[in-house]
Amino acid sequence: MAAQKEKLIIFDTTLRDGEQSPGVTLNNEEKVEIARHLSRLGVDVIEAGYPMASHGDFDAVHRIAKEVGPLMEGREKIGRPAVIAGLARATPGDIKRCAEAIEPAPLKRIHCFLATSDIHLKYKLKITREECIERGIAAVQLAKSLCGDVEFSPEDAGRSDRDFLCQVLGKMIEAGATTLNIPDTVGYNLPEEYGELIAYLKKNTPGGDKVVWSTHCHNDLGLATANSLAGVQNGARQVEVAMNGIGERAGNTALEEVVMAIHTHPDAFPVYHTINTPMICRTSQLVSNLSGMIIQPNKAIVGRNAFLHESGIHQDGMLKNKTTYEIITPETVGVFNESLVLGKHSGRNAFKDHCAKLGFPNMPDAEFQKTFEDFKALCDKKKKVSDGDILALLSNQITSG
Ligand code: KIV
Ligand code: ZN
């Protein structure tokens, strides 16, 4: 009999690691709107930020915990709201501040990290391996006393000594960590190597069978998605991802790529996901519009060209049968209809209804009125107003709101 598939936990870090992309600064209104979309998209955990970074970051995490933490809209098949997580270094100050920020959320998590590679211990933290273990234990114990759900990440795990990692991680389990996340912080690992690392840690860490193992891969060599999928095939049951793959340097693993790889190849993975895939493209557009991080046209799944066919041979094949050149239907990921969706004769109700379909239900009256006026003005200038245009207007509204 085939083994029962397990649920893959989608941990989204668009608002934390993603926001660390050079050039990205989101205001708190924008962060809350992105978090709302992530909740409707069906992510299991929203890492809302790093509360110790600034008062603004603390407020953003607190608002998301309060306003998005309880939301159930679009999450019926999941049956629970998103867990709201905050990041903390392994220091009492960070951990207490994080616990305060996530406090209003019904489901919350403290994500505590501490570097374990010899390079980081020697040059960055200037501590010994023994001191690293002591610092980690104290941090996780404190986090556990403030929040039942504690995740621990050994930063730069991808370049850390494996047996030292097993030792550290075993102690973190003893101290109360329930999720162990394995960051390839500098995007150095190869897929086979990273998959093997997950399998090794899971097998050789004392208590390793009692916790959830998680991937966190950076894209410096363009391998983040392949590495994350290798992690899942080797026992990880959580993936840390960001919408459009935004993040430090070359970015984080792209949410849409991991989800659609598993969606397209269900037999290749021992897991299933509960993401509302038709929400993918509108969430991607929102993140791009608000963050200012333009999506490359040939980006997998969410790029403008991802579902376009240019050559005569391909177009001919598509006209005969779409499966000739299409492995995912555009509707599966909610690709925008680029044809005219609404025009200058459209009424207020039709426009309101359409905004709701695009992921903006229950807009406050003043915001809706302004967007409607902008829409009418655009209709006078443009022959075709697409969903992408309407989303841009809605995003502007949030930015200036
Ligand atoms: O890349 C990394 O190591 C991180 C940790 C803080 C989880 O983002
Ligand atoms: Zn990272």
Structural class per helix/strand content?
Answer: alpha/beta
Strand order of the largest sheet: 2-3-4-5-6-7-8-9
Shape: globular
Number of helices: 14
Number of strands: 10
Bound molecules: 3-methyl-2-oxobutanoic acid, zinc ion
Low-confidence region ranges: none
Order of helices and strands: EEHEHEHEHHEHEHEHEHEHHHHH
Helix percentage: 40-55%
Largest sheet: 8 strands, parallel, barrel
Work out the radius of gyration: 22 Å
Arithmetic mean of pLDDT: 94
- Which strand-content bin applies to the residues? 5-15%
Intertermini distance: 55 Å
Summarize the structure.
By secondary structure, this protein is an alpha/beta fold.
Write the layout of secondary structure elements.
Blueprint: E1 6-7, E2 9-12, H1 28-41, E3 45-49, H2 55-67, E4 83-89, H3 92-102, E5 108-115, H4 118-125, H5 129-146, E6 150-155, H6 162-175, E7 179-184, H7 191-204, E8 212-217, H8 224-233, E9 238-241, H9 255-264, E10 271-272, H10 280-291, H11 312-320, H12 348-357, H13 365-381, H14 387-400
Parallel strand pairs: 1-10, 2-3, 2-9, 3-4, 4-5, 5-6, 6-7, 7-8, 8-9
Helix pairs in contact: 1-2, 1-10, 2-3, 3-5, 5-6, 6-7, 7-8, 8-9, 10-14, 13-14
The chain binds 3-methyl-2-oxobutanoic acid and zinc ion.
